[in-house]
Amino acid sequence: MHSMKSPGGSLFPYYYKGGELHCLKYGSFFSNADALFALMKAEEEFISSRNRQLNIWVDFYETQLTDSVLIKFVENINCLQNHTKKLAIVGFTFWDKWRLRQKIKKTTVPFSMPIKYFDDPEVAKTWLVSE
Q: According to the lineage, what is the superkingdom (predicted)?
């Protein structure tokens, strides 16, 4: 399989320690929620067109995590759950994790994939490629 770039600029497929994962670069949007939402939609279409399950790492560093961003992210991962084996989220504070969990609890369809939060992207990627 040849490599390509996803809408967020990530190499696809991305190989790490013998495994494969996909990075959703949702970081560095600061307060530009409209641009972030457009990227989320583009990534949904890109991942859905792959027609397989992926280990996904999401980077949120330097993005303002407002309620509307968290709600849209829950919608985003809900749309992607049939294409997601594991989900690693990087860049959340304790408070952000709590807020996201509250939003997830309010969804009508429970998430089937394991979700973990990390401060270190390397640890997140290692967890994704581990059995």
A: Bacteria
